[in-house]
Automatic annotation (TrEMBL):
The lineage of its organism: Eukaryota, Viridiplantae, Streptophyta, Embryophyta, Tracheophyta. Pfam families: PP2C (PF00481). It is an enzyme of class 3 (hydrolase). Its cofactor is Mg(2+); Mn(2+). This is protein-serine/threonine phosphatase. Residues 47-235 form the PPM-type phosphatase domain. One of its GO terms (molecular function) is protein serine/threonine phosphatase activity. Belongs to the PP2C family.
Length: 235
């Protein structure tokens, strides 16, 4: 069950053009050895670039940028969607998110004629339900797909507001320039769901009181069921 609250913050972004663009590492990304990247480009709400270093034999991660979207009059003319999907155990989940999450977000935004915390949560839930359905269908032929997963960190800029939604142990950080000193402050915008954090372990244990192995200390690292360090909860 997905639970918790989205963080939403005021942002100093304003639309600069009426151009729509789509960017992901799957569409036109460049590779230099184990480095996958897209150079900085101008989009509706500023300049964006992407980079990822491949850690496994197969690139399991995805990132996505949709700019010039979510065009509802009452929210301002245009918005920007940014997603980072940290896959583990394989690329299937992160690719599925890349293909479906934004489409669900557009659908729910259109239906409710607004972008909101509830709309973003519904898009997450619809994406998860869709992947669970895929796992059910593929289970007889490909049982290992049940062990594939992904973190899901999303930022949506619309109407001058930045919404940040996180599932897993990725982190969104805002760099804010201090004019007086010229330094840049790092401001954390999301909270990780990592069982190395005591409060997260306590929450998991309270949710699963009959499972003594729900959180296990393995090689001096806390892990869910002795396998992974994060669990899903939208915040």
């Amino acid at each position: 069950m997905l639970s918790g609250l989205m963080n939403f913050l005021r942002a100093c972004f304003r639309p600069k053009s009426d151009q729509y663009s789509h960017t992901s590492l799957d569409t036109g990304g460049r590779q230099d050895g184990l480095l996958w990247y897209k150079d900085t480009g101008q989009h509706v709400n500023g300049e964006f670039s992407m980079a990822v270093v491949q850690a496994n034999n197969l690139l399991e991660d995805q990132s996505q940028l949709e700019s010039g979207c979510l065009s509802l009059n009452e929210l301002g003319p245009y918005g920007t969607f940014v997603g980072v999907y940290d896959g583990h155990g394989g690329p299937e989940t992160s690719r599925f998110i890349n293909e479906h999450l934004f489409q669900h977000l557009k659908r729910f935004t259109s239906e409710q004629q607004t972008i909101s915390v509830d709309v973003i949560r519904k898009a997450y839930q619809a994406t998860e339900e869709g992947f669970l359905s895929l796992v059910t269908k593929q289970w007889p032929m490909k049982p290992q797909i049940a062990a594939v997963g992904s973190c899901c960190l999303v930022g949506v800029i619309c109407g001058g507001t930045l919404y940040v939604a996180n599932l897993g142990d990725s982190r969104a950080v805002l760099g804010r320039a201090v004019k007086a000193t010229g330094e840049v402050l790092a401001i954390q915008l999301s909270a990780e769901h990592n069982v190395c954090i005591e409060s997260v372990r306590q929450e998991l244990q309270s949710l699963h009181p009959d499972d003594s192995q729900i959180v296990v200390l393995k090689h001096n690292v806390w892990r869910v069921k002795g396998l992974i360090q994060f669990y899903k909860r939208i915040s």
